[in-house]
From TrEMBL:
Family annotation (Pfam families): CarbopepD_reg_2, Plug
Keywords of this entry: Cell outer membrane, Membrane, Receptor, Transmembrane, Transmembrane beta strand, Transport
Record protein name field: TonB-dependent receptor
Location of the TonB-dependent receptor plug domain: 279-357
Membrane topology per record: Multi-pass membrane protein
Family: Belongs to the TonB-dependent receptor family.
Principal place of residence: membrane
PROSITE patterns: TONB_DEPENDENT_REC_3 (PS52016)
Location in the cell: Cell outer membrane
Entry keyword annotation includes Membrane: yes
InterPro entries listed in its UniProt record: Beta-barrel_TonB_sf (IPR036942), CarboxyPept-like_regulatory (IPR008969), Plug_dom (IPR012910), Plug_dom_sf (IPR037066), TonB-dep_rcpt-like (IPR039426)
Length: 923
């Protein structure tokens, strides 16, 4: 008994002495010392010997002071934000380990717990995981597998499952690899990368075999030993091999996964199958077949999104604003589909990095040139020809893309059912040049130049000309795996001219010009698997020449008039967080602060506040020097949206956003005209504002082969610009006397059914929407429709589109396109009256009636060349008939007085079937 007591006392004495030695206190200070130097100093002070490999120790600086601290506490603090653990072996030796820990005992019941483990239980959160991590370094000796350790093992870690995230990048180009499958072979759990190459996957603690699967890049396997949340990037070489039939589905679940409402992407490659007028591929026309996007009529430029005006859409080409994206009176788009890489439309929740428009953003990006080999594509149609080529400049470093289109025939105008247009002529062209250069995997430069030019003559004595010009420069820098920034410089220029020469005394030249220059810096930061930040700043300078007119010759009686230049400065800063609350709930919350300052030089009229603005109510003038601020507007813009998974393939989305728009169009035309002018907000014209609420359900079927969605929205607007009855807007220096600012509201429900793959594919879209305007000023001349809401010019309640494609064989396919729309509103004459001995026409309330409904069916047959690998190029023929039914759809309805009677006339663009053939060749 005494002997046992003596042994126990001896044991506790040894333990006490060891504890005293291991908890030996040290006082030490570091001033900007390296971590290795700090560890060496701890060795000298404590008398302990530290064993480690120097390559494990990260290059970091230490500036800390410790006073009478135990050695293990100092080591724990120094190594806290590294993957290094330590173990005090005895009184004189400390072993440092990377990632893992050294255990001197196993937890109680360890072997019993191990026997009960299953793969399924590994992914059940919340259970304690106090067991050490073991892994077999010879898991499969027949294949070489790189072992990667992630994170740092900790004592009593309660988590069994960790999250691994990162990017998949092309090894040569550093471009993101989208739709790459990343699979855990242990559990069968798998994910795919998004458009940025980003992925997130859950892994159980310890050893995991991770494999990549792709048909465009090499497939690799890594042994990942994970101890905590961490990141791992995949840099994969391109892998090309001969394959049989393969279907690639990119971002198959994006429609239900992301938080944005009202987001649409256009498949640029497959629009070639959609039968459109004159066989032309047209991104904008395809966009109008999607729910919530419509036009005021056939052949009209511009489009209306969720009840908004045409000027409320922001059209971006490589981040530069395009003011008029249409050719040939709106029959063709000014965007070349052969040089376009992607097109994304935001019509619900608009991300915080975009601003300046109320209704939508069309973000269109051109392709990067191939840097390895020469390639191109050409098209010949009945009206236009197109060519796009890609030229490597420095092998696998830089490339140049050139694209151009031009028209060569006026025959289409000759066939129109409109006497005035039969004698007209028209021509247009557009060209684009893009250079992209990769300095290294972290630095990339691209620059784009674009120009389009239209020239047409409606009558023999008038020539109209309008031109877009864009310049952009993008410099992208990847700071590290989690931070990437883009510096963007853009310049946009739009102008039009009218030459009227009838050899009489009223010959003149008139024109308009707007130019804007923007600098933007956009940053993206991945804080963790739950938070992804997007923030930045931008500044934009506007220069507007509102218009001029001057005589063409000395005999002309036209006076030389030039309106004063307008200048404005728009600035913005934004911050957004894509916050993954849990596996079901994703929030996207952003705020954008924008401001606009109208700048001098200007002379501002002051009016009597008790009278309507006109020449008779002027009380004085206020002078502003060049670049002097005249008035400033602005405020916060909130961008909030959320996605909640009801089921794995069914999500509910909701959003709210408010927006400011500081630029307006001046036009009393129903449809967009090339001669519409833009004016800036100023002393008398306030910026437009809007609030939009959206709610929708998004569901995928048949393993993501079919997408369905139903989405509703409600939008209110303020300070919408309209015109007084009989307004004169042309070269009006004091335009505030001719316009009214009112409020608007719109609401609707949108339905989309899309089948993306298979021999039979396409989509069906239907929108029920209403759009109203209210003009109720303080004075009688500022009140329309008794100050009550009335239908806007583009209010078309029912809008239905059906786009289908059936692949008969690998080479032969049929396509069809059907469109139905409610007729747009119109103001009709309802009677006549006599006043002062003269007869006048009495009109209805504004937009009280509607023109006839619109519907159209188009059919096409598509013939692809054979699919042999060894051939000069790939061909594609399109045989289409536009308006198969020969429907005489009204373009406009107008009224003329003949022999004292008012007669209604209808103008149509295509009142007969229009057959076309187009040929495409890829090389």
């Amino acid at each position: 008994m005494r002997k046992s007591i003596s042994l126990v006392i001896f044991y506790f004495c040894v333990q006490w002495l060891f504890a005293q030695k291991s908890e030996n206190t040290v006082s030490i200070s570091f001033n900007n010392s390296s971590l290795i130097s700090a560890l060496q100093s701890v060795e000298k002070k404590s008398g302990l010997k530290l064993f480690y490999a120097e390559e494990w120790i990260p290059d970091k600086q230490i500036s800390k002071t410790y006073t009478d601290k135990p050695v293990q506490d100092i080591l724990a603090d120094l190594l806290s934000d590294t993957v290094i653990n330590f173990y005090i072996l005895d009184e004189e030796q400390v072993i440092l380990t990377r990632n893992s820990m050294i255990y001197d005992r196993l937890p109680e019941g360890y072997f019993g717990k191990q026997a009960e483990r299953t793969v399924q239980s590994d992914f059940e959160e919340g259970e304690s995981n106090d067991a050490p991590v073991f892994y077999n370094t010879d898991n499969n000796p027949n294949r070489e597998i790189e072992t990667v350790r992630i994170g740092k093992e900790k004592v009593n870690n309660s988590r069994k499952v960790f999250q691994l995230s990162g990017y998949a990048l092309d090894k040569k180009t550093a471009e993101p690899i989208s739709n790459l499958a990343i699979i855990s072979e242990n559990s069968g759990n798998g994910v795919s990368t998004n458009l940025d190459g980003y992925y997130e996957i859950k892994l159980r603690a310890g050893e995991n075999l991770i494999s990549t699967r792709s048909i465009t890049n090499e497939n690799i396997t890594k042994r990942v030993i994970i101890y905590s949340d961490g990141s791992l990037n995949f840099n994969l070489a391109e892998s090309l091999e001969s394959l049989g039939e393969v279907q690639i589905s990119s971002n198959a679940t994006k429609n239900i996964d992301n938080a944005n409402t009202g987001e649409e992407e256009i498949d640029i490659e497959n629009i070639k199958n959609i039968p459109l007028v004159l066989g032309e591929r047209d991104i904008m026309k395809v966009a109008t077949t999607l729910p919530g996007i419509s036009t005021t009529g056939e052949g009209s430029a511009g489009f209306n999104v969720r009840g908004g005006k045409a000027d409320q859409n922001l059209i971006l080409l490589d981040e530069a604003v395009m003011y008029n994206p249409a050719h040939f009176f709106g029959l063709f788009s000014a965007i070349n589909p052969f040089t376009t890489g992607s097109a994304t439309i935001y019509k619900g929740n608009i991300p915080a990095r975009y601003g300046g428009r109320l209704s939508s953003v069309f973000d269109i990006a051109t392709k990067d040139s191939d840097t390895r080999e020469f390639q191109g594509e050409a098209s010949i149609g009945p009206v236009t020809s197109s060519l796009a080529i890609q030229l490597p400049v420095v092998k696998e470093k830089s490339g140049l893309m050139l694209g151009g289109r031009s028209t060569y025939s006026d025959w289409i105008l000759k066939s129109l059912d409109e006497p005035q247009l039969k004698n007209s002529t028209a021509s247009f062209y557009d060209g684009i040049l893009k250079y992209n250069h990769e300095f290294d995997k972290n630095n990339k430069l691209s620059t784009t130049a674009y120009v389009s030019d239209d020239r047409f003559s409606i009558t023999s004595d008038s020539i109209y000309n309008y031109q877009n010009r864009l310049l952009t420069l993008h410099y992208t820098h990847r700071f590290n795996d989690r931070n990437r920034g883009v510096l963007i410089l853009t310049n946009s220029d739009y102008k039009f001219n009218i030459d009227y020469d009838n050899n009489l005394q009223d010959s003149f030249e008139s024109g308009y010009h707007i130019n804007e220059t923007e600098v933007k810096f956009d940053m993206k930061h991945i804080l963790s698997s739950k938070h992804q930040f997007d923030y930045g700043v931008s500044g934009k300078l506007y220069n507007v020449d509102p218009g001029f007119i001057k005589p063409l010759n000395s005999e002309s009686s036209i006076s030389d008039i030039s309106l004063s230049r307008e200048q404005g400065l728009e600035a913005a800063a934004w911050f957004a967080d894509n916050f993954k609350v849990n596996d079901e709930l994703l929030l996207s919350a952003g705020i954008r602060f924008s401001s606009f300052t109208s700048l001098g030089e200007d002379q501002v009229r002051l009016y009597d506040s008790n009278s309507p603005k006109n020449d008779n109510s002027v009380t004085g003038y206020e002078e502003y020097e060049p670049n002097e601020p005249i008035v400033t507007y602005g405020g916060p813009e909130f961008r909030l949206s959320a996605r909640y998974y009801i089921l794995s393939d069914l999500s509910l989305k909701a959003s709210y956003n408010n927006t400011y728009q500081y630029i307006h169009t001046l036009s009393n035309n129903v449809t967009v005209s090339p001669t519409d002018t833009y004016r800036l907000s100023g002393y008398h014209i306030k910026p437009q504002k809007a609030n939009q609420y959206s709610l929708g359900l998004f569901k995928n079927w048949s393993t993501n082969e079919i997408e369905t969605s139903i989405e509703g929205y409600y939008k209110t607007s303020d300070n919408l610009l309209d015109f007084k009855t009989g307004a004169n807007l042309f070269l009006n220096e004091f335009v505030e006397t001719e316009v009214i600012q009112g409020e608007g509201k719109s609401y609707g429900v949108e339905l989309l059914l899309k089948k993306k793959t298979g021999d039979f594919n396409g989509w069906f879209s239907y929108s029920y929407s209403r759009s109203f305007l209210k003009l109720a000023g303080e004075f009688a001349e500022e009140i329309v429709n008794n100050g009550e809401f009335f239908a806007s010019n583009f209010d078309k309640p029912h809008d239905l589109s059906l786009v289908t494609n059936y692949k008969l064989t690998q080479r032969f396919s049929f396509s069809a396109n059907f469109v139905y729309q409610t007729g747009r509103p119109i103001t009709y004459p309802t009677g006549k009256y006599n006043y002062g001995g003269s007869e006048y026409v009495l009109y209805s309330q504004r937009n009280q009636f509607r023109i006839p409904d619109y519907y159209r069916l188009d059919l096409s047959f598509n013939l692809e060349g054979n699919h042999k690998l060894e051939k000069l190029g790939h061909t594609f023929w399109n045989f289409s008939v536009y308006n198969v039914l020969g429907r005489n759809n009204p373009y406009s309805v107008f009224f003329v007085t003949k022999d004292g009677e008012v007669e209604a006339k209808q103008a149509s663009i295509f009142s007969i079937p229009v057959p076309t053939i187009s040929f495409n060749f890829q090389f």
